[in-house]
Design a protein that fits this description.
Number of domains: 4
Structural class: alpha/beta
CATH class of the largest domain: Alpha Beta
Oligomer: single chain
Largest sheet: 6 strands, parallel
CATH topology of the largest domain: Rossmann fold
């Protein structure tokens, strides 16, 4: 749910129309165009709407020249969404990029003049180089340990630590299995030597090299600062030290910076992200305006109250106010005897929701670790419930979709008076689509669902849409990662659910040892798990169901309900005492 407002005409945006599309809190953000600004934006408060309208308002009023604005975020998908929204608001000339994409562009542009030749190529597989480095120093470890070692390599670099500083800090970190801080440093040195020998760089190098270039080359710094006058950074709670320092280097001595974030959604500390830059923004920029977005347009009052209760008293927590006036169901806890029982319970819960009128695509099952997915997938499959795993192959990368888009590009060239739906139907039939869904689940059904999603896009297109326009829209969606939703239950880890939402959410495994995870033993670790749970809760628009089981695998010991259930007021007898379903 978002504030009620008419669409903004992308051809003639007016400042008044842009402001009219916002609520009072968002409007304050949009009007605060100059100087340092920190927007503390809670889950579901329309932060993306607020910052895109702010940028568009700045352009429409002449305060910003669109070519001098750089909007930064952390994922390609988020950058694509920003670009799409800005285009719709008449600010399509504004650049919206990830930190890495912006840095990579600058590195490629300035390298020939400052260093000579072309910039190093990107490492295609960091894992393979890490494995080779391990071999060169005689370190024999398995693949999971190599992944952990890659994480240590990345963490040191984004923290901007020397090898000695890393080794000192490692005493408070959990080292990868069968390693020690000194051996990890040996591997790091070997890894860097291999990259240098191959004239390659990794993604951390992209940021570090760009930072070094801006700091050490006055010509580069001057050019960048003339190019970019105004900066906007989304998800600022996830910024790392190297990203923060690069941003300050781009700014120089200026302070026209707007950052947006939510300390309660800091869930990537293990990668080097820290909310201290968001929470300390007022200290870093003493004349900063600190604004808040606390009106939640996503969830029912019942879900919002649970989220608020979980985070009450935590640093930077916002007190969300639900704007949804229709009462929703109270959050439900379903205790189970064992993991198999829990998976079956989840399948029954999904079936109940669908029987009650929900679509499969309205439902998501979220969990702490990917391994929890297997039992849930099996239970859904047994019950004929279609599902997709978040983070799997992207929609427009699916072979049947790529083939269908290819055929449509050919069809778009043909001159005919046939209506759009008929032409799309004919193309999809060539690709294997039928008007009725095939029986059961599996690859055939998945292919049909993908093609059916394209058909639904055509059905929802404006009445006068041409085949050429529809095909161009598909190509644009592929480029910006705007994918249609398949009618299937989404399975996702809590981390990969960030930024998404569903009418109905099931949080699985809300038990000690899973949430919080068993290896979260410090106060900081438990706090991060609490924030993960908060992210999960705030994905739900209408209903929230939580499950846990008293017994995991045959090798695992008994479990108890998560301490977080007590924090949100669900530590009832029913929540504590599992019974077989």
């Amino acid at each position: 749910m978002t504030p009620t407002a008419g669409p903004v005409d992308p051809t003639t945006p007016s400042p008044d129309a842009l402001l009219a599309a916002l609520d009072a809190e968002q409007r304050t953000v949009a009007r605060t165009l100059l100087g340092p600004v920190a927007v503390l934006a809670g889950a579901g408060t329309g932060k993306t709407r607020a910052i895109t309208h702010r940028i568009a308002y700045g352009v429409a009023t002449g305060t910003y020249s669109p070519n001098h604005v750089l909007a930064l975020t952390f994922t390609t998908r988020a950058a694509g969404e920003l670009r799409s929204r800005l285009r719709a608001l008449g600010a399509g000339a504004v650049q919206a990029r990830t930190f890495h994409a912006a840095a990579m562009s600058q590195l490629g542009y300035f390298w020939p003049d400052t260093v000579g030749g072309h910039a190093p190529g990107l490492v295609e597989s960091k894992g393979r180089v890490i494995a080779h480095a391990a071999d060169t120093i005689g370190l024999r470890v398995d693949t999971p340990v190599l992944r952990d070692l890659a994480g240590e390599v990345e963490w040191r670099k984004v923290q901007r630590l020397t090898y000695d500083e890393y080794e000192a800090a490692a005493s408070e970190r959990t080292m990868p299995r069968d390693t020690s801080p000194s051996r990890v440093v040996d591997l790091m040195r070997a890894y860097e030597r291999l990259k240098d020998d191959r004239r390659q760089m990794d993604f951390e190098d992209v940021l570090l090299l760009t930072l070094g270039m801006v700091e050490s080359e006055p010509r580069v710094a001057s050019f960048v600062r003339q190019q970019y006058r105004f900066f906007v950074v989304d998800e600022y709670q996830d910024v790392s030290p190297v990203q923060h320092d690069l941003l300050r280097a781009w700014l120089g001595g200026r302070d026209d910076l707007c950052v947006v974030g939510d300390a309660s959604q800091t869930i990537y500390s293990f990668t080097g992200a820290s909310s201290r830059y968001l929470l300390g923004f007022g200290s870093e920029f003493p004349r900063a305006a600190v604004l808040r977005l606390e009106r939640n347009y996503r969830s029912t009052r019942e879900v919002v109250l649970a989220a608020n209760a979980l985070m009450r008293g935590q640093p930077g927590a916002l007190d969300l106010v639900a704007q949804e006036t229709t009462p929703g169901p109270e959050p439900v806890v379903l205790p189970c005897v064992h993991d198999g029982d829990e998976a079956a319970t989840i399948a029954r819960r999904i079936a109940e929701l669908v029987t009650g009128g929900a679509a499969y695509g309205d439902c998501a099952v979220l969990f702490r670790v990917g391994a929890q997915s297997a039992a849930i997938e099996s239970a859904l499959a047994r019950n004929g419930i279609p599902y997709r795993v978040q983070g799997g192959k992207r929609f427009f990368d699916r072979p049947e979709v790529k083939l269908a888009v290819h055929h449509m590009r050919g069809e778009a060239v043909r001159q005919t008076d046939d209506e759009l739906l008929r032409r799309v139907e004919l193309v999809l039939q060539i690709s294997g689509w039928t008007r009725t869904a095939p029986e059961g689940t599996g690859a055939v059904r998945e292919q049909w669902e993908a093609l059916q999603a394209i058909m639904q896009l055509a059905e929802n297109a404006p009445a006068d849409t041409t085949m050429q326009q529809f095909t161009a829209d598909l190509v644009d969606r592929a480029a910006t990662h705007h994918e249609p939703e398949l009618d299937a239950v989404t399975l996702a880890t809590l981390h990969s659910s960030k930024g998404l939402e569903w009418p109905h959410v099931v949080l699985a495994g809300v038990a000690e040892g899973l949430l919080p995870i068993s290896y979260a033993t410090t106060d900081d670790g438990i706090d991060e798990e609490r924030r993960l749970f908060y992210v999960g809760i705030t994905r739900a628009r209408r209903s929230l169901t939580m499950t846990w089981s008293a017994q995991g695998s045959s090798r695992g010991g008994p479990r108890v309900a998560s301490r977080f259930l007590a924090a949100i007021g669900t530590h009832t007898a029913d929540a504590e005492r599992p019974t077989a379903g």
